[in-house]
């Protein structure tokens, strides 16, 4: 079937919730958790089912079925931009950020998957590829890890050929110099070391921390201060040691938020998360803004979902290989990507190339 042959009216939209315990206690600079919730959306049309998801509270499922489904049903599955705009209009009075944006994200991603399945082509081919594969960096190194677990996780990624690894910092800043030294010893001199404070530090403490981190060869400092503090982010960008990128964007839900972050000159690398910024459609719009500002782009978390848009966005330089989401996606989906020589590419299956393992996910259904 092609878009010119006939309409593909959307028949049904449904959401399911899965809660997956972590494999160990986890924390970062500002939060601790012991499970991850996935809200998975299925959109039915033309005898096919598209799947999308977001990592959000279960309340997002209620928004999908109680608010968005009525808007989406009956619309043409090929008209993804039109549906995206209709969904944003529907949640206007709810606030277009936060849970509403994440609910929209899951539906939007399912629509891209559905269109690819109907046409029999990968989502990357629908968008238009800029590359065949993209590098990934290992991400974890939680502040709750002891030295041994930190060494095994980060060192394992370095040994497997990933070009960089990222660790969490900021919960106990006085302990972080030791933790960064442990990380550097584990990965060796040739693997890049990234750190992420999740906005835990004040401006002056972040400046001091950047100098200390530079001593361990840290080249990426993510959210040194709150991402809401664009002036503080710009201060860090201007005064951080040479060779250290200041990055943020994972908590931006709207296109105007990305615009403001880029206009403020707050980041050396923009991060975007399609599970939060209104789906693949929103991610591509953020990518276009980054390209227009000549700022590189990196995806945040959810690598199985981000692979296709990152293969297509000219500004994309790499993807985050986040421990929690890699583990969940490889447990739940056939077709989840796996790095080869430090990069991931598309397996040429239609849509996102993911198939839910119903028998394996049943235990996590909420």
Going by CATH, the homologous superfamily of the largest domain would be Enolase-like C-terminal domain
**Proper CATH architecture of the largest domain:** Alpha-Beta Barrel
Task: Spell the H/E element sequence.
Answer: EEEHHHHEHEHEHEHEHEHEHEHEEEH
Might you state the CATH topology name of the largest domain?
TIM Barrel
- N- and C-termini, Cα separation: 36 Å
Q: How can the largest sheet be summarized?
A: 8 strands, parallel, barrel
Number of domains as seen in the coordinates: 2
**Residue-averaged pLDDT:** 97
Structural class: alpha/beta
Descriptive labels:
366 residues; alpha/beta; Enolase-like, domain 1; TIM Barrel; 14 strands; 23% strand
Report on this model:
By secondary structure, this protein is an alpha/beta fold. The protein has 13 helices and 14 strands. A hairpin with a 2-residue loop joins strand 2 and strand 3 (48-55). The longest helix has 22 residues, at 98-119. The protein is globular.
């Amino acid at each position: 079937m092609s878009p010119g042959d006939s309409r593909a009216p959307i028949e049904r939209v449904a959401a399911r919730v899965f809660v997956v315990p972590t494999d160990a206690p986890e924390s970062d600079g500002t939060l601790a958790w012991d499970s991850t919730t996935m809200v998975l959306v299925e959109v039915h049309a033309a005898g096919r089912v598209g799947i999308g998801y977001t990592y959000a509270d279960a309340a997002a499922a209620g928004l999908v079925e109680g608010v968005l489904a009525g808007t989406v049903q009956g619309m043409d599955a090929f008209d993804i931009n039109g549906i995206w705009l209709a969904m944003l209009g529907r949640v206007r009075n709810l606030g277009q950020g936060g849970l509403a944006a994440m609910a929209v994200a899951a539906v939007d991603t399912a629509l891209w998957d559905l269109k690819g399945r109907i046409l029999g082509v990968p989502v990357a081919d629908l968008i238009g590829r800029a590359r065949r594969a993209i590098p990934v960096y290992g991400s974890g190194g939680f502040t709750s890890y002891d030295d041994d677990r930190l060494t095994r996780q980060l060192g394992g990624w370095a040994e497997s050929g990933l070009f960089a690894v990222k660790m969490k910092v900021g919960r106990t800043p006085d302990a972080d110099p030791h933790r960064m030294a442990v990380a550097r010893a584990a990965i060796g001199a040739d693997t890049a070391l990234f750190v992420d404070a999740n906005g835990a530090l004040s401006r002056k403490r972040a400046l001091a921390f950047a100098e200390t981190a530079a001593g361990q060869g840290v080249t990426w400092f993510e959210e040194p201060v709150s991402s809401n503090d664009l002036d503080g982010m710009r201060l860090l960008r201007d005064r951080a040691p040479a060779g250290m990128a200041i990055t943020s964007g994972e908590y931006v839900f709207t296109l105007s938020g990305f615009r403001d972050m880029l206009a403020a000159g707050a980041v050396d690398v923009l991060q975007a998360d399609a599970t939060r910024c209104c789906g693949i459609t929103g991610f591509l719009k953020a990518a276009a803004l980054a390209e227009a500002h000549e700022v590189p782009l990196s995806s945040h978390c959810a690598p199985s979902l981000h692979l296709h848009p990152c293969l297509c966005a000219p500004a994309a330089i790499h993807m985050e290989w986040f421990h929690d989401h890699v583990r969940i996606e490889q447990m739940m989906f056939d077709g989840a990507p796996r790095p080869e020589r430090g990069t991931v590419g598309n397996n040429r299956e239609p849509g996102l190339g993911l198939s839910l393992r119903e028998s394996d996910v049943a235990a996590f259904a909420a």
